[in-house]
Amino acid sequence: MLPPTSFPQARSVKDLYASGGKGSLRYVFLHGNHARPSQPTDACIEGKVRLFNRRGEIVFDDDPARNSSHYRFAEGRCVSVNDQPEAYIPARMLVQTLLKNIQVPGLIVAEVPKDEGEVQPGQDDSFLYVAILVTGSSGVDSIPPQDGNYLDTMMRCLVPRFVVAISQRSDDYLPGDAKNLCHEIADSIMKVTEDSSDLLAFLDLYEKRYIHKPSTSPEAVLESCLLHIMKMPFELSSSIRYRLICY
Hints:
Mean pLDDT: 81
Strand content: 15-25%
């Protein structure tokens, strides 16, 4: 990798993320990775954007009646959502930039201060969590139906519980001893889950997709899933500096 001084001058993270909270924004991939924007400046990205509070409750959904929405871009800027011009998008600059920089398919969860989320008054959380799912993009082949089902299930069943668990350990949300952190998070998720049928359904999908060991316990499957997520958290300033995120 080239040293930072070899890169052209990066635009300020403040262009995307004004207040910063505890340093720069932190995010993780639950599926997929970064992808350099390759679509034309006029493009359509298929996906889903949800905003969660610290209790895992949805405080914004781009369209609750749809599994996915269509984000239309013109000259690199999102101009409509599901054909609604200038539709509301929480933390618009950040979200529209991440939509263009996520691999198809991909799912990301990012921690944002409440004022960046621009939610209605009354939300008492200092931080909110935006989940961005990308399942299609102009010029990219359609994903297999089983991938779409897997990611939709992950968004519904794992993301809210993950948000609750990670919000309680925000200061530990850094590279390091990921294995122990994942054990703590998995234990927390399994203990607080009253009706775990949907979570177990997701873990069954994950096990069949990645582990292929039917005797593995749900707790072990969840830890394996979380380790894949938590072993590499990202930080927005560094990602822009090293051109993982371009805009």
